[in-house]
Amino acid sequence: MSRPTRRERIRYWFDNTMSRGTVALIGWLAAISAALIAVVTGLVLWLTPVEAEQHHGLAGVLWATLMRTLSPGKVASDTGSAPFVALMFVASLGGLFIVSALVGVLANGLKERFEQLRKGRSRIIERGHTVILGWSDQVFTIVRELVQAHASQRGSVIAILADLDKVAMEDALRTHVGDTGATKVVCRTGRPVEPADLDLMNLDAARSVVVLSPQGDDPDAHVIKTLLALDKRAGDHPPVVAAIANTANMAAARLAGGHGVHLVDSDDTASRLIVQSSRQSGTSVVCMDLLDFAGGEIYLRSDPDLAGTAYGRALHAYQAATVIGLRRGGRTMLNPPADTVIEAEDEIIVIAQDDSMIRLASGMPKAQEDAIVMTAHPVPGPERTLVLNWNGRGRQIVRCLDGYAAPGSILDVASDHPDAAVGVDGLVNLTVNVKDCETTDRYALESLGLGVYQHVIVLSDDRYDAGHADTRTLMTLLQLRDMQTSLGERYSIVSEMHDENNRSLAEVTRADDIVISDTVIGLLLAQLTENRHLADVFGYLFDSRGSEIYPRPAERYVRSGAPVSFATVIESAARRGETAIGYRLADRIGEAPHFGVVLNPDKSRLVRLGPGDSVIVLAEH
């Protein structure tokens, strides 16, 4: 290869200099200006000595040339010989180009600087803040819940890092979340998988980290890569909570995140909630109430005063808090046997409006014996369930249903989805049939003979984007409601949707339960961000093994229409081996946001529970 020429060396040096940005460009313009001024000044001193003398020599000529370079308009007032005027005109003309170029360079440099500031590339200097990595619709639920949880804390900060424009993120948060009160929300533009961008979030001083599963194809790959980046970074590692969309990727995510990461299986959690809601109307409303920070929350509390007390008696120990279980040696027990003795090291799991309200009652309330009813629960037999539409979590839902159904039960899947019921095998209690059906078509739905089913589950079709899928679900629900009205049929309807804003529209359809899967996962992530020990509690609630939430007819527990204290309801449930946590009033089912659900009522409060009302209990199915 030939050696570079002098011209190539100079050009290479010049290119490298120019690539240094605005400062280098300004430097070149300054050098060119100085050269122009020096040349014109020298020519004036040489060619026009009279005018040079009039301007007091070198210093005066230098100043005059500088002024005409910076302010070209001054040339209009020049007088003297033709060579002098011509030289001043050259200086003014050169200055015109130089000043124009300088203005352009400065404007462009300032624009680039403002763009950098707009993106938010400065390092966060907060301490004890919550970091959210990634962006999805769940971010609005999480921020809203954390704002609610930190309402009484001054200086609370939520920091968000996502590969989106900073201003766009802030605008979206203002639209969907609104006023954040005492909590400050800081957004930064960057990629959560890049170590340099992670450094912007000051993770060493963070309280906790939430990794969101982004929308789009293969979201878990992004989450796993982010977990790897967090695990490999130097410094302190705050607790991490992450959502995984596909159950099959849980093992890889655990390996990537290490021991300091708690993973939420989005598919499994949403599937179990849909199945539980299909079998017991109101379950999703109760779970949402427990998951958000607006109403009753779940707390873990050590109370040595209850050591040696049987669990059955401890149910009445708190006036304004409801005992639901124990945590012993890292193991969670919800609704344990009534004769389980509480040990000094045990943590008591309670539902309360606020931790300040968890105080022992002055005395054990007495149950109204004459109001207690001990009607036996009917033994469930084989049932028929219909699933309309299909999506990626359909197989998980079928397997969960198989764990609840009585032997001999039948499940029909009606959908024109090409993957409907594919891969569903090895079931114990269910027989699965597939029917081709356009689920928004009235005549196609009527041909299914819905009157033979006890439960109908309407899934969100994953062949469409979230908005269009919700629209199709609403159309199906409207058709089902009209069919129930005109044909006089009755079956429970549970629907899965994506957007929380569509819940109010879906209420017109009077579906028994509407599960907003993204909202549920967002609420769960927010809860675990505040208290990771609740992971076992919620995992227990969503598991088919052990005790779960059941809204059951109130007339099986207390005398219908009689005024009874909630302490009486608790006692009636305890005698069945169940833990009562609240009730649901049938005449308020359509009233948002609680839809008739009352959790953790005062034990002395009197309530009349009649036909259609439910007692909400933790019990084995």
Automatic annotation (TrEMBL):
<keyword id="KW-1133">Transmembrane helix</keyword>
<feature type="transmembrane region" description="Helical">
    <location>
        <begin position="84"/>
        <end position="110"/>
    </location>
</feature>
<keyword id="KW-0812">Transmembrane</keyword>
<feature type="domain" description="RCK C-terminal">
    <location>
        <begin position="288"/>
        <end position="366"/>
    </location>
</feature>
<feature type="transmembrane region" description="Helical">
    <location>
        <begin position="21"/>
        <end position="47"/>
    </location>
</feature>
<keyword id="KW-0472">Membrane</keyword>
<dbReference type="GO" id="GO:0012505">
    <property type="term" value="C:endomembrane system"/>
</dbReference>
<keyword id="KW-0407">Ion channel</keyword>
<dbReference type="InterPro" id="IPR006037">
    <property type="entry name" value="RCK_C"/>
</dbReference>
<dbReference type="InterPro" id="IPR010420">
    <property type="entry name" value="CASTOR/POLLUX/SYM8_dom"/>
</dbReference>
<protein>
    <submittedName>
        <fullName>Potassium transporter TrkA</fullName>
    </submittedName>
</protein>
<keyword id="KW-0813">Transport</keyword>
<dbReference type="InterPro" id="IPR036291">
    <property type="entry name" value="NAD(P)-bd_dom_sf"/>
</dbReference>
<keyword id="KW-0406">Ion transport</keyword>
<dbReference type="GO" id="GO:0006813">
    <property type="term" value="P:potassium ion transport"/>
</dbReference>
<dbReference type="InterPro" id="IPR036721">
    <property type="entry name" value="RCK_C_sf"/>
</dbReference>
<dbReference type="GO" id="GO:0008324">
    <property type="term" value="F:monoatomic cation transmembrane transporter activity"/>
</dbReference>
<dbReference type="Pfam" id="PF06241">
    <property type="entry name" value="Castor_Poll_mid"/>
</dbReference>
<dbReference type="InterPro" id="IPR044849">
    <property type="entry name" value="CASTOR/POLLUX/SYM8-like"/>
</dbReference>
